[in-house]
Specification:
27 strands, eight-stranded mixed β-sheet, alpha+beta, about 15% strand
């Protein structure tokens, strides 16, 4: 029996290409030859065999031999291995026998550097010999004499001397004869299939065995189960059988599934196909001992496959979903259709996505127990971080129920010290297996960038949860920093919690007496729209909220009063024409004019003009918190460990990107502030050049600044005059109130500074300097990946989720967010809505119920006198006129 192994030998001129499976040698020529006892031979004999086969002169050229191997842990990735000695050759042969590598090698010829130099020297010597004909003839006579006297001639190491020394010529003839004998059939040690290499007719390297060389416990093929295949776990065996079965479009049933035996058979009774795998008593791997072939045939095209389970789909989609957590179930369905030609249901695709989440982040139940352990490691690695939990004993005994979790990252806490003294607070709901809310506190840096500060997982938004969260924000984030302002959406739980923090709870002393509370303008606008049902009036109300000049504020207020009264009268007229009886009842409970509607809302809460000491810093909305909630939109469905991991690594990348963006400005002497304030100052300085300044103070630096007419037309316009005061303490005042409200100089103050010779930058808050902005993002955040993934099931469980918060309905939520009045008021196209029954699809004339909808009143008030309308006085002083 012959022991020759067939090798594929690539050679010739070409370049190594690279494809999805590794190297591509299709650019080279190829032949196939047999080598006898290749595993026992030395590399020297293999090298000499290649030299003879390719007719290589060893004195002028050398060969490099590289074999085709794969070291990939998963899949197939072919690469080249350089063979230098016999040890390398024997290691390659042993690995090829054990792991099923292809017997293929790449042989390349290279010229020796010394041979090239010898050729150049030979060329110079040839030129000299042409000049001396007599000497050349004497050398030829000497060569002929050396052919007859072989014993007296020795090689001198010169180029082409083998053609002139008879001993070398005889040796070459002997090697040629041996090569001819090798080519003939016989018991030679080496054999070449062809004397002249020919192109391979087949492409690729086939479906070879793949193996992890770092752990030689198992070996298997990528998409086929064969007898003798070895797998690390029973799950790997099941996955391989399923993948092979789906690829063959054949279904199977499980016959045995035990701790040491796994066996499946074809679903068709008359088919002998069977796979039997077992794990030996002292073995750590599984081995397929029986694999038979299918004899059944496909009866038609099937749209589904019984072995296409949720676990199989999760393993197939794991990488795609982990890289893109917002991967939709519909996209999973399309991927399975393209890959396996089967269609799965939406519910199965959704369950597969949830399975991937559990594979990556652990189960939802385990995350409640792993979260405190994870936060401990975060605090350990990041000084300044803090966390706290609230739990209560379970009614059935055992581990405690984890109700609330608070945490803040040290770099974020340090960054807040350089941010504006305000926090935007908001909550968003979790969409996972258990209900809950995520409370967030977001800061703003001097460049108007979002700074995530603190987070909490609570059962829902109520007074208790908000008080618990804000109390820890005060203790761990704000500390002794005074007069911090909270901007919120006027949620009833937030208002009550802030009131308790300011005034104390029961007999307790106030926890946060100097906290300031302001309301979001967008949410106030949504409440306005719910009451008056008019977008144009809502936009006018938002202009009133953001107005900073008193006479413009009074004009807008009066305009809103007149227009809302007119709108209410029109609605009542329509209602009276439809039903006189209901019109009488709705006149008392219907919409109220603007002054009555806003009466109970203190103006300092919603108006920029009445913002005490400019606590808002010009920020009128909670858009910062809403923006961060939008960032977390794709991870709210994850277990708690996954959400915290997203926040931590997201903050690390966020800090790194912002620091790289602002660090060049620190060394730029031309910039004093951040990019946003630099642009603001440039615009105001340009505008200030058009103002006329008149000094008015004797001892004070007080000025009257006349603004240039914006119309630039030769008609009479009312003059706009502002009065500015530059104080000695480094502050400025203006009748436009911008220096107090925004903590930035307005164009009038800048014009007065030019007149008095004072630098305008002295009136800019230090929070807007480039040093403060850079200091916000310079802190380091350290990960916890070295401690593990925190996804395991712990033997000693400390915490469990509240069973009452578990979602019992099948499938996922039907909507992504709860729609409210703000969504409707800011939508691009509002559907038809009845003004009587408040339902969609019809108007009040075709209302089936014909009932008046009672509008909601405004929220609670801290001081009713603040809601009184302003006193409108007729004066000869100049004030802005409303546009007609």
């Amino acid at each position: 029996m012959s022991s020759k192994l067939q090798f594929k030998v690539f050679f010739g001129e070409g370049s190594v290409g690279y494809g999805p499976n590794g190297i591509d040698l299709s650019g080279f020529k190829c032949t196939q030859s047999g080598i006898d006892k290749s595993g026992d031979r030395s590399f020297v004999s293999i090298y000499k065999w290649l030299e003879r086969g390719f007719r290589i002169n060893p004195e002028t050229h050398v060969l490099t031999v590289q074999t085709v191997v794969t070291w990939a842990n998963e899949g197939v990735l072919w690469e080249l291995m350089l063979i230098r000695n016999t040890a390398d050759w024997k290691m390659y042969m042993e690995a090829a026998f054990e792991r099923g590598w292809p017997l293929a090698m790449l042989v390349q010829t290279h010229e020796k550097p010394q041979a090239a130099a010898d050729e150049e020297n030979e060329g110079s010597r040839s030129a000299q010999r042409e000049g001396d004909q007599a000497e050349e003839e004497e050398e030829e006579e000497e060569e002929r004499s050396q052919e007859t006297h072989v014993i007296q001639t020795e090689p001198q190491g010169q180029a082409d001397e083998g053609e002139r020394i008879s001993s070398i010529v005889e040796q070459m003839q002997i090697e040629d004869e041996e090569a001819e004998q090798i080519e003939e059939p016989g018991d030679s040690s080496d054999e070449e299939g062809e004397q002249v290499p020919a192109e391979w007719s087949e492409q690729g390297l086939g479906n070879y065995m793949i193996h992890d060389a770092r752990g030689p416990e198992w070996e298997y093929r990528e998409n086929e189960v064969v007898q003798g295949s070895k797998y690390p776990t029973i799950d790997a065996v099941k996955e391989a059988v399923k993948l092979w079965s789906v690829s063959l479009r054949k279904e199977f049933r499980v016959v045995k599934s035990k701790s040491s035996v796994y066996e499946v058979k074809c679903l068709k009774e008359d088919c002998p196909w069977r796979v039997h795998a077992f794990r030996g008593r002292w073995k750590t791997h599984w081995e397929c001992s029986v694999v038979t072939e299918h004899t059944c045939y496909l009866e038609g095209v099937e749209k589904s496959h019984r072995n296409l389970t949720v676990a199989f789909i999760a393993n197939e989609m794991y990488g795609l979903i982990v890289d893109n957590l917002s991967y939709e179930p519909k996209m999973i369905i399309r991927h399975i259709e393209r890959t396996f030609k089967y269609t799965i249901s939406y519910a199965k695709a959704w369950r597969a996505k949830q399975k991937v989440f559990e594979m990556r982040f652990g189960t939802y139940e385990a995350s409640y127990d792993n979260l405190p352990r994870m936060l401990c490691k975060i605090v350990e690695r990041n000084p300044g971080s803090n966390w706290d939990v609230l739990h209560f004993p379970s009614l059935i005994g055992g581990p405690s129920v984890l109700q609330r979790v608070f945490f803040c990252l040290g770099p974020c806490v340090k960054a807040f010290q350089y941010c504006l003294p305000l926090l935007c607070i908001d909550g968003t709901f979790m969409t996972g297996k258990y209900k809950g809310q995520i409370l967030t506190a977001i800061g703003v840096d001097g460049n108007n960038q979002v700074v995530p500060v603190a987070f909490a997982f609570v059962e829902n938004e109520n007074t208790g949860s908000w008080y618990w969260f804000l109390e820890r924000v005060k203790d761990h984030v704000v500390g002794a920093r005074p007069d911090v302002c909270l901007i919120s959406d006027r949620h009833s739980g937030i208002l009550a919690a802030i009131r308790q923090l300011q005034q104390g709870h029961g007999t307790e002393h106030p926890k946060w007496a100097d906290v300031r509370n302001r309301w979001c303008m967008r949410h106030m606008g949504a409440n306005f729209y719910d009451h008056f049902k008019n977008k144009d009036l809502m936009v006018l109300f938002k202009r009133l909220c953001a107005q900073n000049q008193q006479h413009k504020f009074n004009t807008l207020w009066k305009l809103l009063d007149d227009m809302t009264a007119k709108q209410i009268a029109e609605r009542e007229a329509r209602a009276s024409s439809a039903n006189t009886t209901q019109a009488t009842q709705s006149s008392a409970s219907g919409p109220k004019p603007f002054t009555q509607w806003i009466r109970d809302a203190p103006k300092e809460k919603w108006s920029l003009l009445y913002d005490t000491d400019g606590r808002r810093y010009g920020i009128m909305t909670t858009n910062q918190a809403e923006s961060y909630n939008m960032v977390m939109r794709g991870v709210r469905c994850l277990p708690l460990v996954g959400i915290v991991e997203f926040i931590m690594y997201g903050c690390a990348k966020y800090f790194r990107d912002h620091y790289h963006a602002v660090s060049p400005t620190v060394n730029n002497p031309a910039m004093v502030f951040g990019n946003r304030i630099t642009e603001y100052m440039h615009k105001k300085i340009t505008k200030a050049q058009q103002h006329n300044v008149r000094p008015m103070g004797t001892r004070e630096q007080r000025f009257e600044v006349a603004c240039k007419d914006r119309s630039r037309r030769g008609v009479r316009r009312e003059r706009v005059l502002q009065e500015c005061l530059l104080r000695e303490d480094g502050t400025a005042a203006c009748t436009c109130h911008k220096p107090k409200l925004l903590h930035l100089p307005c164009s009038h103050v800048i014009a007065a500074c030019v007149e008095s010779g004072v630098q305008p930058r002295s009136f800019v808050s230090p929070y807007f300097t480039k040093e403060a902005v850079a200091s916000t993002w310079e802190h380091e955040l350290y990960g916890i990946g070295v401690f593990g993934t925190f996804t395991q099931e712990n033997t000693q469980v400390w915490y469990i989720p509240d069973p009452e918060t578990k979602r019992t309905g099948p499938g996922r939520r039907q909507t992504r967010r709860i729609r409210n009045g703000m969504d409707e008021s800011e939508a691009g196209k509002v559907p038809k809505r009845c003004t009587q029954c408040n339902n969609y699809g019809h108007n009040y004339k075709k209302c089936p119920m014909n009932e008046e909808h009672d509008a909601a009143e405004a929220g609670p008030s801290g001081n009713a006198s603040d809601g009184r309308p302003p006193v409108f006085q007729t004066s000869t002083t100049s004030r802005a006129r409303p546009r007609r």
